[in-house]
Amino acid sequence: MPNHFLTLTPPSLRRPGAGLIAGAIGGLISGFVKLGWEVPFPPRAPGRIPEPQILVSMFTHHPTPEQVGWIIHFTFSIGFGALYGALVEFLPIAALGMGMAYGIAIWLGAHEVAMPLIGLTPPTWALSAQEQLSEFFGHAVWGFTIEIFRHDLRPRFSGTKADSEAF
C-alpha cells in the first residue's frame, strides 16, 4: 500500500498563482479574525508590549506606534497565507485539519522558537497557560480561516472545479 502522506499534486492540476492569491486574501481576513480572537483571549499579560512593536523598536531604538504593529501583523498574515495557498497546490497534506495544522506549525515556529530566541517574548516556560492557549488556539483558528477562503476562492481564480483535498 503506497504512502500518500507526501503525495504531490500532479503538475497538470496545480494552479500556484490562484492558490497564492486565494491564500493571501485568506491571510488578510484571518488577520482580522486573529485580532478579534485576542479581545476575549489576550495573548499577552497586561502591560506587555506587542511583539511587532518590540521588533520595530529593536531596529529604530524608539517606541513604536501601535499602527506599525498592525502593519507587521497583517504583512505576516497575508504573506504566510499566500505561502499556504501556494504550498497546498503542491502538497495537499498542508491543508491538514482544514488549515489548523498549518496555523499550529506557524505558532510553533514563530511563538515557541523564533520570538523567544530573538528576545521578542519571554522564554516559553515563563509564559502563562492563558497566553500559551490563546496563541495556540488563535493560530489554529487563523489557519482555519485561511483555508476557508483559499478553498472557496482558488477554484474561482483558476477556473476549475472546487478542490476537495481539505474535506
Please provide a brief summary of the model:
The protein has 167 residues and is mainly α. It contains five helices and no strands.
What characteristics describe this protein?
single chain, mainly alpha
Strand-helix topology:
Blueprint lengths: L15 H22 L13 H10 L5 H25 L9 H19 L10 H30 L9
Mean pLDDT: 90
Order of helices and strands: HHHHH
- Name the overall outline: elongated
Helix content bin: 55-70%
Radius of gyration: 17 Å
Percent of residues in beta strands?
Answer: under 5%
Distance between the termini: 22 Å
* Unreliable residue runs: none
Q: How many DSSP-defined strands?
A: 0
Q: Any idea how many domains? A: 1
Largest sheet: none
Structural class: mainly alpha
Counted by DSSP, the helix tally is 5
